[in-house]
Design a protein that fits this description.
By secondary structure, the protein is an alpha/beta fold. Helices cover 50% and strands 14% of the residues. The protein has 2 domains: 6-146 and 237-277, Bacterial extracellular solute-binding protein, family 7 (D-Maltodextrin-Binding Protein, domain 2, 3-Layer(aba) Sandwich), CATH 3.40.190; 152-234 and 293-320, Periplasmic binding protein-like II (D-Maltodextrin-Binding Protein, domain 2, 3-Layer(aba) Sandwich). The longest helix is centred in the last third of the chain and has 36 residues, at 254-289. It binds calcium ion.
């Protein structure tokens, strides 16, 4: 039995002592608050899937209880609750914190900005992750990418938009930076609670609204009352977000920190796939049910006005907010690297294959 070397014996001894060490692993109990109600799939799968991964990887020693918005009743209070420590973590979207710090919107998406693959390039290889931690440092929080909805649709309109004049006085629900852009173009931008959107559109209280994409829109039924479905421009890559209380994270044993970060990464990837799948299948179903849905693109003069207004809104914030400018410049620089490649790869492939695939 010559092959049992000293090293092998040492290894065997280490394994023996490792058993009691495993049994002494720290018990950790965390709570995670989601912006979404617990049945709003696929977004609401994020918390429970993360919790199961972390529990499985720690032999049940690190347990996370995921709560939907119907439980904590603070869908848009996740950042405050994570900062305050009532919840150690959350699953949400960064642009909901625009009112606290406008720079947070860049960690979701921006009008006419990067697609999801481009933006992931920025996050992981273009300095995006570091900038995000810098911005969230002031909230005593860590922030991690949490999935992506992909290109969001430009919204449901009761009437066709043929010119800039058609936007003047149009009553539309469209939040965030895009709402500021539309307001500049004369749109009467309103914010209405999600539960009242269908009735408002049906009764003509609003003429148009944007929501997400087919996967989420189908549950709202907008396609039954507003047949013009416009292509997106305003949220080309809405990134979801895991928020983690910084102090709670620092108190975790290093192996739990590594497990949590790895699990968040895994859920991020699954969310991208789940959103894509939900959109593709819901679109097929929607179109079969209502063949009259018209997929539209805004006319070019309208798009040009939107782009000009977008630049004015972003430049305006950049002029008065140094950190906003820093993140804005970083994104613009990465866009210049990323977009030429997207055009010669993805865009060329799509137009090339379109010629031969139905
Ligand atoms: Ca949206």
């Amino acid at each position: 039995m010559k092959r049992f070397t000293g090293a092998a014996v040492l290894m065997a001894v280490m394994m023996m002592v490792a058993v009691p060490a495993m049994a002494e692993q720290k018990k950790v109990r965390w709570k995670l608050a989601m912006t979404w109600g617990s049945t709003l799939t696929p977004l609401s799968d994020s918390g429970p899937i993360l919790a199961k991964m972390v529990s499985d990887m720690t032999g049940g020693n690190f347990e996370i209880r995921a709560e939907g918005a119907e439980k904590h009743k603070a869908a848009l209070g996740i950042l405050d609750m994570v900062k305050g420590g009532q919840y150690e973590m959350g699953h949400t979207a960064s642009y909901y914190w625009k009112g606290k710090d406008v720079t947070t919107t860049f960690f979701t998406t921006a009008p006419f900005d990067m697609t999801a693959p481009e933006q992931f390039g920025w996050y992981y290889h273009g300095g995006g992750l570091e900038l995000m931690q810098q911005v969230y440092g002031k909230f005593d929080a860590l922030s991690f990418p949490g999935g992506n909805t992909g290109v969001q649709m430009g919204g449901w309109f009761r009437k066709e938009i043929t010119s800039l004049d058609d936007l003047k006085g149009l009553k539309m629900r469209i939040p965030g930076l895009a709402g500021e852009v539309f307001a500049k173009l004369g749109v009467n931008v309103t914010n209405i609670a999600p539960g009242e959107l269908y009735t408002s559109l049906d009764r003509g209280t609003i003429d148009a609204l944007e929501w997400v994409g087919p996967g989420m829109d189908i549950k709202m039924g907008f396609y039954k009352i507003a047949p013009y479905y416009y292509a997106g421009w305003h949220e080309p890559a809405s990134e979801l977000q895991f928020l983690v209380n910084k102090k709670a994270f620092e108190e975790l044993p290093p192996e739990y920190q590594a497990i949590l970060v790895t699990a968040m990464e895994a859920v991020r990837g699954r969310q991208v796939a789940a959103n894509f799948d939900a959109n593709a299948k819901a679109w097929q179903q929607m179109k079969a049910e209502y063949p009259d849905i018209k997929v539209m693109k805004f006319p070019e003069p309208v798009l040009q006005a939107m782009k000009k207004a977008t630049d004015e809104v972003l430049e305006g914030y950049a002029a008065e907010n140094a950190e906003f400018k820093e993140v804005y410049e970083s994104r613009k620089a990465y866009f210049k690297v990323a977009r030429p490649w997207t055009k010669i790869s993805e865009q060329n492939y799509l137009s090339t294959s379109d010629a031969v695939i139905e």
